[in-house]
User: Which sequence fits this backbone?
């Protein structure tokens, strides 16, 4: 029996994650769920957004279903996601961009780069260290090449014409692709952002560094209808966390208008990771059937609420099981 930690987080996380959890429970009633609280709301009450006991709870899970968290512009606030990614060594961020005529997977190094956490402020400047190590590059390249080996080819997003750290990243990724027999090419990240949006059919698996991957995958959401539809996985050797790409959206929180598709599809990725691709496919198909029936949330031009959309997906899942 798999143990799944459920973290609602902040803002609309309290609305979309319960929907995804209910669907998970419907397809896998044998899963054991337990709640873990992290985020800005917890920090406001206690002064800690994610403590050592919380990390221990997350480490005890077979998988984590994670909602959005708010990160305020406060120097005393440490990013919850960065803390969890580093503590659980979730080195691979995987974001599928899938829709009509689009099938791309962006693999982002998840623990280094500009999100390495090495920062300080001085009277007249603030500094952030961009870390690109050989070890970090090798393991993300290996992950991306393994994925591309079952698909078509690999693109290495980089800015090696300006950043020496990216010269190392391209060198390592190219060598790993050659070793594994994966066709690959390197593209400068600025040109890649534009070309991927204009010609998505030319791309398959894209691997890149931390911030470049963050920006590229958010921009690619344009191809399939927006951030409300994109799931993601954060993968390590011993832990895995699944979360919608979108943020906590405090401006619409509590109004029952948030789109739960990204959270539901993140739950489908969780199912696949835990060895149940059939249930994952059933959840994905249920989402597609609901959308094809014209049931949509406001961001997609519809009138359905968060709970109502989730209930429609749950009905489809139930019909499939029956």
Assistant:
């Amino acid at each position: 029996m798999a143990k799944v930690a459920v973290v609602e987080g902040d803002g609309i996380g309290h609305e979309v994650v319960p929907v995804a959890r209910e669907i998970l429970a419907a397809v896998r009633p044998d899963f054991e769920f337990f709640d873990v609280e992290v985020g800005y709301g917890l920090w406001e009450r206690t002064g800690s957004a994610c403590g050592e006991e919380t990390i221990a709870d997350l480490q005890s899970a077979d998988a984590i279903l994670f909602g959005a968290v708010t990160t305020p512009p406060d120097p005393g606030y440490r990013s919850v996601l960065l803390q969890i990614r580093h503590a659980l060594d979730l080195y691979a961020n995987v974001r599928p961009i899938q829709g009509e005529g689009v099938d791309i997977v962006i693999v982002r190094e998840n623990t280094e780069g500009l999100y390495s956490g090495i920062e300080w402020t001085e009277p007249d400047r603030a500094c952030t260290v961009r870390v690109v190590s050989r070890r970090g590059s090798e393991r993300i390249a290996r992950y991306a090449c393994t994925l591309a080996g079952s698909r078509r080819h690999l693109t290495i997003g980089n800015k090696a014409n300006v950043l020496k750290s990216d010269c190392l990243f391209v060198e390592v990724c190219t060598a790993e692709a050659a070793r594994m027999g994966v066709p690959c090419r390197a593209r400068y990240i600025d040109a890649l952002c534009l070309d991927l949006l204009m010609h998505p059919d030319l791309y398959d698996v894209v691997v890149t560094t931390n911030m470049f991957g963050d920006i590229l995958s958010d921009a690619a959401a344009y191809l399939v209808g927006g951030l409300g539809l994109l799931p993601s996985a954060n993968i390590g050797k011993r832990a895995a966390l699944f979360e919608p790409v979108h943020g906590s959206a405090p401006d619409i929180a509590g109004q029952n208008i948030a789109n739960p598709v990204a959270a539901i599809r993140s739950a489908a990725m969780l199912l696949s990771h835990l060895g149940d691709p059939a249930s994952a496919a059933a959840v994905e198909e249920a989402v597609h059937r609901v959308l094809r029936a014209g049931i949509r949330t406001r961001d997609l031009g519809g009138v359905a609420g968060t709970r109502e959309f989730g209930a429609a997906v749950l009905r489809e899942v139930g019909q499939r099981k029956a």
